[in-house]
Design brief:
InterPro entries: Cu_amine_oxidase, Cu_amine_oxidase_C, Cu_amine_oxidase_C_sf, Cu_amine_oxidase_N-reg, DUF1965. One of its GO terms (biological process) is amine metabolic process. One of its GO terms (molecular function) is copper ion binding. By secondary structure, this protein is mostly beta strands. The protein has 3 domains: 94 residues, Nuclear Transport Factor 2, Chain: A (Roll), CATH 3.10.450; 112 residues, Nuclear Transport Factor 2, Chain: A; 392 residues, Copper amine oxidase, catalytic domain (Beta-galactosidase, Chain A, domain 5, Distorted Sandwich), CATH 2.70.98.20. The chain contains 9 helices and 39 strands. The strands form 6 sheets. It has a 20-stranded antiparallel β-sheet that branches. Strands 1, 2, 3, 4 and 5 form a 5-stranded antiparallel β-sheet that branches. The longest helix is centred in the first third of the chain and has 17 residues. It is globular. The N terminus and C terminus are likely disordered. The protein binds 2-acetamido-2-deoxy-beta-D-glucopyranose (NAG) (8 copies) and copper (II) ion.
C-alpha cells in the first residue's frame, strides 16, 4: 500500500494505469513515507551549517521591540506618548517600530575583518499630533539592547528632502484615526443623498459600522500634494470578497486638511462623468432625470472568486496530478536558521526582513568572492489612469503600507514546490513581534532546461557521436505579498553558473473601474459593469554590487555600426561592420536600456582581472518587461517618484543614502521627504563603491483574462545578473549532475553518470523495494 501511493504520486503521468486520484496531500504523504524509511530524502530538512558571522543585518529581537516600546513610552523619554488604542489625532502615539538599516561602513570591518559587531538600532515612527505643529517624526533608538547608553535621537540622516524624518500632518500616513476623523463628514454627505444612491445603485452608505450600509468606501493615495492640504478621494464598491471587481460609478471628494475635523468639507461628488460641487447640484441633476446607471454592477461576486467554474467544464486528463519538482536526492542547500544564512552550490548569503522592504539579501558571495553587498526591494509602485477621480488620483507606493508585513502562509505544492523549506517571517507590530508562519520558502528547483549541452557528429543512428548535457537547477527564495488587491510574488533564484535572477509576478484583483462605454482608452470592459483600469506597475530595487571588493565601475559596452574598409575585400569598398565601444561611466546618473538591446551594462571590478586580463564583472541582463513609469509630469508623481522614472541608475554608496524612497513619500509629490534625484550630484562612479538601482515592472494592459484575477504567466517581470568575465571559464565543469554519452564505431551507446545515478529508495512495506531510478530511466 505504501508503495502504491508513492508510485501514484511520482509517476501518475508516466504510468496512467496506476490510479492517482486528485489529492493535494498526495505528495506530502508520499514524502513522509519516504522519510519514515530514511529513503530518498524527500522530506529531510536541509542540512545545517554555522554562519561565519552573527548576522549583522538581522531584525531586532522581540525583546528589543518590547524594550524600545517601553522606553519611548516612559515619561522620562519626554515624548509625551498616548497609548495608540486611546489616542486621537491630536495625541502623540507610536505608529510603528522597525529595524534600522545598519551602516555599511560599520559592517564591512566586521564581516571582512576583526571589527566589532555593529550595534543594532530601532527606527520608531511617532505621529506627533499633540505638538503645536502636528507632524510625524522618525527616531532612531539604540544601541540595543536597551541600556543606560541607549539614546532616542531624531532619525533625519536617511532623508534628503530638507526636513529629515519629519512629515507634516497632512502628508503623514492616512491611518485609521485620520479615517475615523473624516467619517462623520462622509456619512453626512452620503446619508443626505441616500435616496439617490439607492435609486441609482441600490446601495447606501451610513457609516462603516451601520447596519443599513451596503456600499464599501475605498480611499486612495496620494492624499496631499505638498503636505499643506489634504484630501480624500473615495470610490464606492459593492462589499464582498471580490469587492475590487464590483465598483460603482460614484465618487465623493473631501477636503480633510488639518487635525480639526469640524473644518473638513465636501469638494464634490462625481457620477455619470459629471462633477457636482454640492449635494444640491447633484440632486438637481437627479431630479431632472439626468443621472442614470447604464451598466449596473453585480452584487453577486461568485464570478470573481478564484474557484473552479462548473460551466467551464473540465479538460481531458486534468484530474491527474500535475508534474512536480521534487528534491529526490535530498536537499542540496544548507541553512543556519538562527543567523538566516544560506549555502548552495558555491553561493553563500544572509537574509534579513523588515516591515517596510520585506526580504533583503546581504553579502552574496559565489565561491567565496563577494558579488553583492546588498540586494533589496526599495519600492513597489503603481499608477493608474482614467477619466474619473479615483483612477486619476491613484498612485501606490507599497512601502507606505509596510509591504513586508503582507507575506503570509504559502501553500506548499502550489505557491512553492512540495518539500520546500518554509520559514516564518517576523516583524515588529506595536509593542511585540508578529509571526507569519511559513511565509517564506526556499527550494531548489529543476530549471526545466539543461544548463548546457552539445552534440557532435551526426552520422550514427543516434544523430551524434559525443554528447554532453548538464542538469540545470537553481535555488529560489520566495515570498508573496498581498497588499490590498494584488498578490506580488517575489522570487530570487541563484543559478548554478553564478547568475542571479530576480522576478516579480502580480496576481490578485485589478483595481477596476465601473464601465464607461466611451472610455475604452483607459482599458477594456471586462464584465457586466466593470472596466479594467490601465495602470503601470514599477518595482524598484537596490543592487549594491561589490565585485570582489567595493571598488567598482559601471561599464557600458555599446554595439555601434561603423563604415570601414578591409583590404582583403577590395570589391566591397566601404561597408558596415559592428564594433564594441566599451567605456566606463564617469558620474552618477539615471539611464535606460538601449533600443534593440544594443548596449550591455556591467558592473566591473576596478582592480581585479581574470586569467585573460579582462576586468571581472557582472552583467545586468534585461529580462521580461523592464519598464519605468510611463508618465513624467503627473501631479501625483511629480517629485516623490524619481526612482521610478528610469530603467536604471548608478550612484556612489553612502551611509546616508541607504534607501531610494521614504515610506511616507507618497503624499508629498510636490515636496518629497526624500528625493531620489538629489542622489545625482556629480560624484564619480568609476573605481568607487557604487550602487545600481533598477526598475522592474509591467504596463498592465488590462484584459478580460484579468477576471477573476490577474495571471502570473503574463504579469511578470525579471532581470538576471550574469558573470561577465568574472571567471576564467563557464562555471559548470565542477558539476557532476551531467551525462557524457558516446557512440562507438560499432554504433554502441555508452554513458557516464559520474556517480550521480538516479536514487533507489527502499520502503519497508509489503512491497519490498521501490527503485525510483528504474521507473524514471528512459
Ligand atoms: C486607555 O484609557 C483607559 C481609560 O482612561 C485606561 O483604562 C486604559 O488603560 C488605557 N489603555 C492603555 C493601553 O493605556
Ligand atoms: C502632551 O500631549 C497632549 C496630547 O496627547 C497635549 O495635550 C499636551 O499639551 C502635551 N504635553 C506637553 C507638555 O507637550
Ligand atoms: C442596500 O441598502 C439600501 C439602504 O439601506 C436598501 O434600500 C437596499 O435595498 C439595499 N440593497 C440591497 C441589495 O441589499
Ligand atoms: C513558526 O511559527 C509557528 C507558529 O507561530 C511556531 O509554532 C513555530 O515555532 C515557528 N517556528 C520557528 C522556527 O520559530
Ligand atoms: C555607411 O555608408 C553608407 C554609404 O555612404 C551610408 O548609407 C550608411 O548610412 C553608412 N553607415 C553608417 C553606420 O555610417
Ligand atoms: C563610444 O562611447 C563614448 C561614450 O558614450 C562616446 O563618447 C564615443 O563617441 C563613442 N565612440 C564611438 C566611436 O562611437
Ligand atoms: C590595483 O592594486 C594594485 C596592488 O594593490 C595597485 O598597485 C594598483 O594601484 C591598483 N590599481 C587601481 C586602479 O586601483
Ligand atoms: C550611519 O551613518 C550616518 C552618516 O554618516 C550617521 O549620521 C549615522 O549616525 C550612522 N548611524 C549609526 C547608527 O552609527
Ligand atoms: Cu496590475
Amino acid at each position: 500500500m505504501l508503495a502504491e501511493s508513492l508510485v501514484a504520486a511520482l509517476l501518475a503521468t508516466a504510468f496512467p494505469s496506476v490510479s492517482a486520484r486528485p489529492d493535494p496531500d498526495l505528495y506530502r504523504r508520499a514524502m513522509s513515507l519516504a522519510s519514515d524509511t530514511r529513503s530518498c530524502g524527500l522530506s529531510d530538512p536541509a542540512p545545517t551549517v554555522k554562519a561565519p558571522k552573527i548576522n549583522p543585518w538581522s531584525s531586532i529581537s522581540p525583546d528589543d521591540v518590547t524594550a524600545v516600546w517601553d522606553l519611548v513610552h516612559a515619561p522620562a523619554s519626554g515624548l509625551n506618548l498616548t497609548a495608540p488604542a486611546n489616542a486621537t489625532l491630536t495625541d502623540n502615539y507610536v505608529y510603528f517600530i522597525d529595524t534600522l538599516h545598519t551602516n555599511k561602513s560599520e559592517i564591512l570591518p566586521y564581516i571582512d575583518g576583526n571589527g566589532p559587531q555593529p550595534s543594532k538600532y530601532a527606527r520608531v515612527v511617532i505621529f506627533e499630533g499633540g505638538k503645536e505643529e502636528p507632524i510625524s517624526q522618525e527616531y532612531m533608538v539604540g544601541p540595543l539592547p536597551v541600556s543606560s547608553s541607549t539614546a532616542i535621537e531624531k532619525l533625519d540622516y536617511i532623508f534628503n528632502g530638507g526636513k529629515g524624518g519629519e512629515v507634516p500632518f497632512n502628508g503623514r500616513y492616512y491611518d485609521g484615526k485620520r479615517s475615523a476623523a473624516t467619517e462623520p463628514l462622509l456619512v453626512s454627505v452620503m446619508s443626505s443623498i441616500s435616496d439617490i444612491t439607492v435609486a441609482l445603485f441600490d446601495g447606501g452608505y451610513f457609516g462603516s459600522g451601520d447596519k443599513r450600509t451596503n456600499l464599501t468606501a475605498g480611499s486612495t493615495t496620494p492624499v496631499s500634494y505638498d503636505g499643506t492640504q489634504a484630501f480624500r478621494t473615495i470610490m464606492f464598491r459593492y462589499p464582498g470578497l471580490a469587492s475590487y471587481m464590483t465598483p460603482i460609478d460614484l465618487y465623493v471628494l473631501l477636503d480633510i486638511t488639518g487635525t480639526d475635523a469640524t473644518k473638513y468639507f465636501l469638494r464634490g461628488i462625481v457620477t455619470n462623468e459629471r462633477f457636482f460641487p454640492t449635494v444640491a447640484e447633484l440632486r438637481a441633476a437627479y431630479d431632472a432625470g439626468e443621472l442614470k446607471n447604464e451598466f449596473p454592477q453585480t452584487r453577486d461576486q461568485e464570478w470573481a472568486l478564484l474557484k473552479p467554474v462548473a460551466e467551464m467544464g473540465v479538460r481531458d486528463l486534468e484530474d491527474r496530478l500535475a508534474p512536480q519538482s521534487v528534491e529526490l536526492g535530498g536537499k542540496r542547500y544548507k541553512l543556519d536558521r538562527e543567523q538566516q544564512y544560506v549555502e548552495y552550490m558555491g553561493w553563500t548569503f544572509y537574509i534579513s526582513f523588515s516591515r517596510t522592504l520585506g526580504l533583503m539579501f546581504y553579502d552574496i558571495k559565489f565561491k567565496g568572492e563577494r558579488v553583492l553587498y546588498e540586494l533589496s526591494l526599495q519600492e513597489a509602485a503603481a499608477q493608474y489612469a482614467g477619466y474619473q477621480p479615483k483612477a486619476a488620483n491613484t498612485v501606490y507606493h507599497d512601502t507606505y503600507y509596510s509591504i513586508g508585513t503582507y507575506s503570509a502562509t504559502l501553500v506548499e505544492g502550489f505557491d512553492c514546490p512540495f518539500g520546500s523549506t518554509l520559514l516564518n517571517i517576523t516583524f515588529p507590530e506595536g509593542d511585540h513581534t508578529e509571526v507569519h508562519p511559513d511565509a517564506l520558502c526556499i527550494f531548489e528547483q529543476d530549471s526545466g532546461f539543461p544548463l548546457a549541452r552539445h552534440r557532435t557528429g551526426g552520422s550514427t543512428d543516434y544523430g551524434f557521436t559525443r554528447l554532453g548535457s548538464v542538469k540545470g537547477s537553481a535555488l529560489h527564495t520566495r515570498t508573496v505579498h498581498t497588499v490590498g488587491n494584488y498578490d506580488y510574488l517575489f522570487d530570487y533564484a541563484f543559478h548554478l553558473d553564478g547568475s542571479i535572477e530576480i522576478s516579480v509576478r502580480a496576481s490578485g484583483y485589478l483595481q477596476s473601474s465601473p464601465y464607461y462605454k466611451d472610455q475604452g482608452k483607459y482599458g477594456p470592459r471586462i464584465s457586466e459593469g466593470t472596466q479594467g483600469s490601465y495602470h503601470d506597475h514599477v518595482l524598484s530595487f537596490k543592487a549594491d554590487f561589490d565585485i570582489v571588493d567595493a571598488k567598482n565601475s559601471l561599464q557600458s559596452t555599446e554595439l555601434i555600426v561603423v563604415n570601414q574598409t578591409q583590404p582583403w575585400f577590395p570589391e566591397l569598398g566601404i561597408f558596415e561592420q559592428m564594433e564594441l565601444n566599451t567605456t566606463l561611466m564617469s558620474t552618477e546618473k539615471q539611464f535606460n536600456w538601449a533600443p534593440n538591446g544594443q548596449t550591455m551594462y556591467s558592473v566591473v571590478s576596478s582592480n581585479s582581472t581574470n586569467k585573460w586580463g579582462e576586468k571581472r564583472g557582472y552583467r545586468l541582463v534585461p529580462g521580461r518587461s523592464n519598464i519605468h513609469l510611463s508618465i513624467g509630469d503627473s501631479p501625483f508623481t511629480r517629485k516623490q517618484s524619481g526612482l521610478l522614472k528610469s530603467h536604471l541608475a548608478v550612484t556612489q554608496q553612502h551611509d546616508n543614502e541607504p534607501y531610494a524612497n521614504s515610506w511616507q513619500n507618497i503624499n508629498l509629490p510636490e515636496a518629497p521627504q526624500h528625493d531620489f534625484l538629489k542622489f545625482f550630484d556629480g560624484e564619480s562612479v568609476d573605481n568607487e563603491d557604487i550602487v545600481v538601482w533598477f526598475n522592474l515592472g509591467m504596463h498592465h494592459f488590462t484584459r478580460s483574462e484579468d477576471v477573476p484575477v490577474t495571471l502570473f504567466t503574463e504579469a511578470v517581470t525579471s532581470i538576471v545578473f550574469a558573470p561577465q568575465n568574472f571567471n576564467d571559464r563557464a562555471q559548470e565543469g565542477d558539476l557532476r549532475n551531467r551525462r557524457w554519452v558516446e557512440v562507438d564505431a560499432e554504433g554502441a551507446l555508452s554513458y557516464e553518470d559520474y556517480g550521480v545515478a538516479l536514487p533507489t529508495c527502499k520502503v519497508e512495506a509489503e512491497e519490498p523495494v521501490l527503485n525510483i531510478g528504474e521507473w524514471l530511466s528512459i
